[in-house]
# Entry
Amino acid sequence: MSLNPCASARIACCVTVCSAWVATLAHPAMADTDLFNNGRWIVVGATDPGPDPRNISVSINGAPAGSFSELKLFYEFTGAGFPQVFSITGRGALRPSLPPPGEFGGSFWLTRYWDCSIGLVPSLVISELDLLVNPKDPKVLIFQGKVSNLTSFEATDFRLKFPSPGSKEVKVEVSYTLVATRDFCVDSSRQQLEEGFQAARMRANYLSDDENDNDLIRYEARLQACDWYGCFGTSGSVCGSLHNDDSELVCFDDRLVDPGMLLVHQSSWPRNTPTLKINFDSPSTKKLNPQGFVAASSDPDEENVDFWANWRAAKSSYRTGKKVGKFEYTMKAIPPGRVSCNAGACY
# Structure
């Protein structure tokens, strides 16, 4: 059996590849504020050092706890104390890290889209979070709150569920229902490029093989395979190496056949940063196309790689007060490692 010529071009570039306020807890950083400690999880309010920090109004079981532009989440691991496993920022970045010897690398971001009138609208920002403490389930951390893109839609049922992390997986389950706050339209020309309505995305740094957070993308798509009797559809694992130039990551009209998209780190070198993965529940896989872009950069602190799932079933326009869509997905950090591939994402 052989793949068709288009798929064969892919192969050429494929890479094998309860609530407790803390008075005596030691501060991870001098300016940080201890908010919660149940013996397993520690939540600390902090200042986001990134650009354009935005405050989150934080409460615990409804009781106000202050405003912070970043929340740091720590979890107890035997022999490692309480390493930080997640960062939540008001500007909408969620950044995971595996327990030691893992390091922080890339980040997850929520929904954004291209508006047909005003251009690219930034990702959702997080304005409110209430920590829902359940003493009977101390291993699980749940936040509920509000997100908005500050111009056209918002969600008041935003929810983050952090199950107990492990050495091989740190994850958060995300859900929210977007509702239009004004009439708006989605740029159809951007939708044709598979970037018009980005359900969720991953960002990372890639400068070279010697300096990067992640170095490969991977997803499952429907491919065409051929043998002596003809051609037929088959599912395949599609991979694409990252390059430090202005380039599109997916050159085909691929549609996901598996809910998982990975921004892979194939080795613990040059730093032990994790592979990032998003598993989509809603919108459904059959309504999502993978796409992304790398912007040429020489800045080791810049996240110059964007990799997202485009919601091609988004409507062309929405009216004020109408439901835009329900979004449910799981964001994961897993250890670096090689992945299998049988097709390439670009020529």
